[in-house]
Amino acid sequence: MKKIVATVLAGALAFAIAVEPLQAQQVLVDPKAWAAYKVQFLDPSGRVIDNGNGNISHSEGQGYGLLLAYLSNSPADFEQIWYFTRTELLLRDDGLAVWKWDPSAKPHVTDTNNASDGDMLIAYALALAGTSWNRSDYIEAAARMAQALLSEAVVEAGGRTLLLPGVEGFTPPGRIDGPVVNPSYWIFEAIPVMALLAPSDRWQKLSDDGLALLKSLQFGPRKLPAEWVSLARGPAPAEGFDAEFAYNAVRIPLYLARAGITDKALLSRLQHGMTANGAPATIDLATGGVKTVLADPGYRIVNDVVACVVNGKKLPPTARQFSPALYYPSTLQLLGLALVVKKHPECL
């Protein structure tokens, strides 16, 4: 235990030294947009509500909420979201968050497994906010979560370093076709920060192997990754899941762009493969058939960001108009706009 604590504190110190605190943080999310987001999705308790999924809350949503509060330079909102997160979700013995909280159930936590992308988002946002706002408690909490992720969810299998979607249920013997991964769980922009918080060369390997894996996942006529991928032998759509490019996978090009990964061939292939009638869509991998066209501006902005990064194309007016309806696409829209404001203002 003493060794773990020392590692966590050393990682926190390394992060604080490596990242210079911002004297005047750039506001990357428009205050009016953030206010509209809060009205629609943020409960006074600090719970981020997924209104497209039975009004549940989850670690992913709390992580996104923390990140958007940071990008909005809203310390009070950040603390509100963090209070709910640490008191209602950080219940596991390993330092990771339970993934699901249901307001209609008693007890509210209905699944105690973690979701590794949610954990990484929470740790990433805590690290950024702690550094910018001089909150050592945030940095230390981030370091503990990063160390827990490294210990529990980052694994080696088949010569690759992988991020398990959750600690339980994705590897043998319980999962015969395991390891099973979700390519959209690699938050590439956050991984270098994890390496500062919990120093290990495994983080760079995780990033490199995740990108290489993503490039290799070209299923069906549209050459798209599956949402859930078995790596027991060669990569294949995992058993028990629909063989599809689905809602989670739509964010992959946005994650790449936000991390500064501007591989034009990869981004263009993903954009072309997932587009139908000018908008992202969920795709049946075997046939290439369109299952659902995702017309919300929050989904469309993923293609708009790719067009900006690859071709310097300006965002259409609809991408810049924020009228939140559903939690997930509204979140993607604000993350997309924040990226363009920071790195590609020529596209505005």
TrEMBL record:
Q: What is its EC number?
A: 3.2.1.4
Per the record, the domain of life is Bacteria
Source species, please?
A: Rhizobium gallicum bv. gallicum R602sp
The protein here is known as cellulase
User: Which Gene3D superfamilies does the entry link to?
Assistant: 1.50.10.10
Give the catalytic activity.
Endohydrolysis of (1->4)-beta-D-glucosidic linkages in cellulose, lichenin and cereal beta-D-glucans
Q: Where is the signal peptide?
A: 1-24
Q: Which family does it belong to?
A: Belongs to the glycosyl hydrolase 8 (cellulase D) family.
Instruction: Supply the Pfam families for this chain.
Output: Glyco_hydro_8 (PF01270)
Keyword Iron-sulfur included in the entry's annotation: no
- Top-tier EC class: hydrolase
Q: Which UniProt keywords apply?
A: Carbohydrate metabolism, Cellulose degradation, Glycosidase, Hydrolase, Plasmid, Polysaccharide degradation, Signal
Mind listing the GO biological process terms from this record?
A: cellulose catabolic process
One of the record's GO molecular function terms: cellulase activity
